[in-house]
């Protein structure tokens, strides 16, 4: 009689583990899968930094991260995410392959792309895009100015971090 209960319990535990593993930007529980690190709210694959307080969010793939606040934000995603900074604070964003970044606020944006990405810099602050590992960054900042750094990074709208 115990075997059916163990089977059901095993099925439930496996289902819960899979749901947590593939949930995108759920609240962080101290694991690599990230989510809301500091002062943010998540619902499924969408995370939002509230209007006040510094914020930090991370996810693995296919999530939407948005900073609308007056404080600084850090947004990080491995691939296929949408990262938006509409606030007046500064934003640091690190994204991977197939990601789209929008910097529309009045704060400065520092964006790192480790894979091909698209960046819109329409805000009033400075916007620096760093394309790592041979990534192709399509960006209005890259159309205006692009520098090839010694380490192979392409920088748009800023300077190389490593002395030439």
Describe this structure in words.
With 164 residues, the protein is α/β, with parallel strands linked by helices. It has one domain. Helices cover 15% and strands 40% of the residues. The strands form two sheets. An eight-stranded mixed sheet has the order 1-4-6-8-10-12-15-14. The radius of gyration is 19 Å and the shape is globular.
- Average predicted confidence as pLDDT: 75
Helix amount? 10-25%
Figure out the total of helices: 2
Largest sheet: 8 strands, mixed
Sheet with most strands: strand arrangement: 1-4-6-8-10-12-15-14
Shape: globular
Kindly name the structural category: alpha/beta
Beta-strand percentage range: 35-45%
Q: How many individual β-strands?
A: 15
First-to-last CA distance: 72 Å
C-alpha-based Rg, rounded: 19 Å
Structurally, the number of domains stands at 1
Q: Based on the structure, what is the oligomeric state of the protein chains?
A: single chain
Low-confidence stretches: 1-33
Order of helices and strands: HEEEEEEEEEEEEEHEE
Give the key terms:
about 160 residues; alpha/beta; seven-stranded mixed β-sheet; globular; disordered N terminus
């Amino acid at each position: 009689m115990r075997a059916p209960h163990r089977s059901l319990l095993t099925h439930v535990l496996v289902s819960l583990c899979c749901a947590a593993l593939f949930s995108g930007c759920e609240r962080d529980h101290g694991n690599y899968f990230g989510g809301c690190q500091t002062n943010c709210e998540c619902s499924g694959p969408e995370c939002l930094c509230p209007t006040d307080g510094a914020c930090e969010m991370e996810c693995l793939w296919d999530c939407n991260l948005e900073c609308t606040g007056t404080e600084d934000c850090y947004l990080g995603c491995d691939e296929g995410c949408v990262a938006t900074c509409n606030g007046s604070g500064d934003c640091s964003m690190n994204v991977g392959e197939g990601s789209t970044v929008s910097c529309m606020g009045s704060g400065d944006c520092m964006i790192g792309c480790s894979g091909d990405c698209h960046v819109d810099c329409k805000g009033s602050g400075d916007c620096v895009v760093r394309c790592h590992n041979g990534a192709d960054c399509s960006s209005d900042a890259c159309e205006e100015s692009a520098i090839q750094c010694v380490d192979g990074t392409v920088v748009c709208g800023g300077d190389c971090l490593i002395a030439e």
